[in-house]
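Budget justification aside, the reviewers requested a transparent look at the raw inputs and outputs of the sequence design task funded under Objective 1. We therefore reproduce one unedited record. The lines immediately below are the structure tokens for a 55-residue chain.
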């Protein structure tokens, strides 16, 4: 992989950070993705869109 990873933390699991390339995110087209980490243990993978802000 070249360049920096995205690094955006998951909104419910902040230990899980996006490992996609920086600047990749496009809602519903290119979600954040990375290993799902809960209490310091990898429990599979996760992909997520950023939550929408309430109006």
């Amino acid at each position: 992989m070249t360049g920096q990873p995205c690094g955006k933390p998951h909104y419910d699991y902040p230990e899980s950070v996006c490992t996609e390339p920086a600047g990749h995110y496009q809602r519903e087209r290119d979600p954040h993705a990375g290993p799902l980490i809960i209490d310091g243990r990898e429990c599979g993978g996760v992909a997520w869109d950023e939550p929408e802000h309430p109006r």
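Strands lie at 32-38, 41-48. Residues 8 and 18 are 5 Å apart (CA to CA). Computational costs for records of this kind are itemized in the attached budget.
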